[in-house]
TrEMBL record:
Organism listed in the record: uncultured Sporomusa sp
An example molecular function term from Gene Ontology annotations: phenylalanine-tRNA ligase activity
Protein name per UniProt: B3/B4 tRNA-binding domain-containing protein
Domain B3/B4 tRNA-binding residue range list: 63-211
InterPro entries, sorted: B3/B4_tRNA-bd, Phe-tRNA_synthase-like_B3/B4
Pfam family, one: B3_4
Amino acid sequence: MQISIHENIRQVIPNCRLGYLTISDVIVRGTPPALSQEFAQLQQEVAKVYNLEDLPKLPRVLAVRNMYKKLDFDPSRYRPASEALVRRVLQKKDLYYVNSAVDVNNYCSIKYLLPFGLYDLDQIAGNVVYRREQEGSYINIAGNMVSTDNKPFLTDDKGVFGNPTSDSRRTAVTLATRNILAVIYADESVNTAELSGILDFAGNMFVCYNCGKVTGKYII
């Protein structure tokens, strides 16, 4: 499997970047206590450092929002996954603990203020293209029908399956998942060295809490 960025995104974001990992032979389980503790500590740190009023003005959050705006993807209506998670923490709402893989994904998204996507690699057909999709719809993880009209999506031979805000039910990571694809939707301000370091951190966390091994690390 290869991932590429379509020209209809390159035209408006010439320096658009994706970082991604493939991780094989994972064992996804319920959230382990050690991960819950790490997550609780991160939430405490976030609550001390950030506040709701200033959150949209943070350089990283602002950069991601600007990336959305260039794609005509309203970040106030369709919040980047990272911002939505941090907002829940600052609003003192409970985060959803899903499983050992999804929780690591959310942890990394909060830590780095970047949208992370997590997908069951065995449910992806053929190569993947990050593109602005035309008219259509898909079922998201929550089971809702979502329009794809001119929004940025990862697509495979079967259609759309993920974007920086809402992923599809088709490729959701569950306890039955054995191979995963983790994608970072990076804004233009994230340089190669920084993105590589974030991928390394994420890969180590995925393996720590889900076993398996990182079989690929890529930046495009």
